[in-house]
Amino acid sequence: MVGPFRRIQKTGGSTYIVSLPKAWVEARLKKGDAVQITEHGNDLVISAETRQRRDEICRIPHEENPAKMVRRVIAHYLDGSDKFLIEAPSEARSALQEDLKAKVPGLEVLEETEEGLLMHNLLAQTGLSFHATLRRLHSLCQAMLDMTYKNLETGKIRPLDALEREADRFYILAFRQLAHLRQTDVDIREHAVFYVIVIKSLEKIADHAFIFSKQPLPKNAARRKTLRLQVAAVRDAYVAVLQALLKKDGSMAEAALDRIGDIRPGLVGNDFLSYNLLRILDYSADIAEMVLDMYSPDLG
User: Do both 99 and 22 map to the same domain?
Assistant: First the structure.
């Protein structure tokens, strides 16, 4: 059916908007929902697919290997599903529930049925933004590096397991949000590769901080002091990179890359502990280079 024409309006410097028919929206969407816009030649097709996917209950059949069920839930979660019926016998539900809650952000049990667990993503109602998720992932990485420094300073090992699990959860959430925003946000779509590299780099930084924390501390006091100073230098360089990212400042990214270049030679060719610090530094450099490419002062 061909509807009435609607006039395009311009807001800000470069954004064009057009209103949607009220009856169509009220029948399919609610405030805060997104629509998918698909190009077909000279036409744009607007679809209300996101809400339909979220409102459907995704059924996860029971398997003897619970890890396969968890992987299926994560795959559907990343694709935008918010409701799951997870088929499982009563004796397997408790462990499966705890595993899913530990790995999938926002997932909680709302009901137990004869078939299994009915779980919903409660974060879907909070409106947590993609950039807030990135900031949280950054703060978790920084906390892991801070605790690593403290472990070397005191000689006492405080485990990073809880922080590492939380970083994994926000890593999954960031990719889910990115997949959704690529359909609805022009800026995110144009810079999707940039954000993929940032998310993956942050996850790798958390992994190497966690691996570092699992290694026995050197018994030699001089070696522990050297490592402590190296951890502090790597942490400060990482923080400088993330500040450049959050402020979208190419000059700050360039200065952070210079700092990384100064630190790197002291980590090359040493033991496995230094190797993990070197990898953290390299992933930080990957982020800095992307920020510099996007926000270079030479580009005006």
Answer: no
